[in-house]
Amino acid sequence: ILLLYIQKKTFGVGGNTIHLVTVSACMRLACHRSRNNIRQAKIVKGRSINLALSHRGRQALKQVGMEDTIVSKGIPMHSRMIHSLNGTQYPIPYGKKGQVTLLLQPAETYSNTKLNFAHKLLNWSTETGAMTFLRADGAKEEIQADLIVGCDGAFSAIRKQFLRQSRFNFSQTYIPHGYLELTMPPINGEFAMKPNYLHIWPRNTFMMIALPNLDKTFTCTLFMPFDEFENVTTGDQVIEFFQKYFPDAIPLIGADALKRDYFRLPAQAMVSVKCSPYHLSDKCVLMGDAAHAVVPFYGQGMNAGFEDCLVFNEIMDQLNEDFSAVLPEYTRVRVPDDHAIADLAMYNYVEMRSHVNSKWFLFRKYIDNFLHIIMPRTIIPLYTMVTFTRTRYHEAVKRWHWQDKVRNDIVTRRACWPWHCLKFSDLASLMTCHFFNKEN
Ligand SMILES: Cc1cnn(-c2ccc(OCc3ccccc3)c(C(=O)O)c2)c1-c1ccc(Cl)c(F)c1
């Protein structure tokens, strides 16, 4: 989690590698993490190390002068590549030049990084900020903090103490889908597929994506209901399943590797966590997955966490770093937006699970892009607002509903397409909205 120039003693607890390294690199923050160093682990149990960085996350990195460093280690994806069942591939650009999603892997450690791995938080006090850690050598370490930032993930130890507080709201939802990661190796030292694309195989209840890595491999993530994972128990059944749904991926992953890696780890669960408030008195604040774990179907998990820091620091500026005012204001401003992206990611999961196959995906995206081209200020695709702007998440949702109403009003009054079926007045009303927005 990015905490910018807080002069007081601030202790971050948790955070995954990219958050920890970035935090420490920019602020000599003492970070305490119960897990071992992911960078030294050979196999990390089911934990994906691909992180999709887009505009919100980049703005946070920019504010601490880290954007160029981190972006230089990322792979830009300027379009989706939709893989149809018959093996045909359709590129759909994300939009304007420069609107890319960056794929990151754990960054390098920086000289002023003080990372305390395998430090388990035993206890902490909301009144005094006193913290007790159990170190890897078994010794206990007492620390006194002015502010404790709980960025210790979806199953936060810091948040556990919030549960004892009156009027603390908390919800946790596991979805019936799991995910499993496979590796697509390079061919003759080169990427097996076009690298600067987010490869998507939309198959309604099954989906697979492939994200490029710096070592020219792709990390393929298969999303599928646990019931379906349980039906595939032998190597031959894996091949049969892939022949039916992802035939073009078999030669690229390799049949033997597919049969082997498919069973390397069990399918991992996905959880959505929402809570409020995000703060306790003036001593503790939750950020990142500890505050709002989201399902991955919008690629916004890390970006929302980074934007937490950006918003926190904007409020620190406004309220002169007075934690007793900053923390409640951070809750007031940030909770509606983080709840909105959690709901949006879950909506996308339902949308993509129910009827998003390659034809529907293509249709939706072509329509979105077409309407955005002819009325760039009136129709802005939701994915564009979420991924390529800092439009507040809850405001993006409000605008999306308004745009859907405008579009559906026109469509329901005219059963047919294409465009020439619309009466002039329909076009006029749309263009009026467009010019009206121009005024705004
Ligand atoms: C890692 C990452 C970064 N962005 N996205 C993402 C997510 C959703 C998208 O569209 C939603 C939609 C398309 C068509 C109809 C309704 C909704 C698009 C898009 O427009 O390209 C891209 C993902 C991602 C993550 C998991 C799955 Cl399963 C997946 F497919 C992609």
TrEMBL record:
One of its GO terms (cellular component) is mitochondrial outer membrane. It holds the Pfam family FAD_binding_3. Residues 61-310 form the FAD-binding domain. One of its GO terms (biological process) is pyridine nucleotide biosynthetic process. GO terms for molecular function: FAD binding; kynurenine 3-monooxygenase activity. The keyword NADP applies. Gene3D superfamilies: FAD/NAD(P)-binding domain (3.50.50.60). Its cofactor is FAD. InterPro entries: FAD-bd (IPR002938), FAD/NAD-bd_sf (IPR036188). Keywords: FAD, Flavoprotein, Monooxygenase, NADP, Oxidoreductase, Pyridine nucleotide biosynthesis. This is Kynurenine 3-monooxygenase. It comes from Salmo trutta. The gene is KMO.
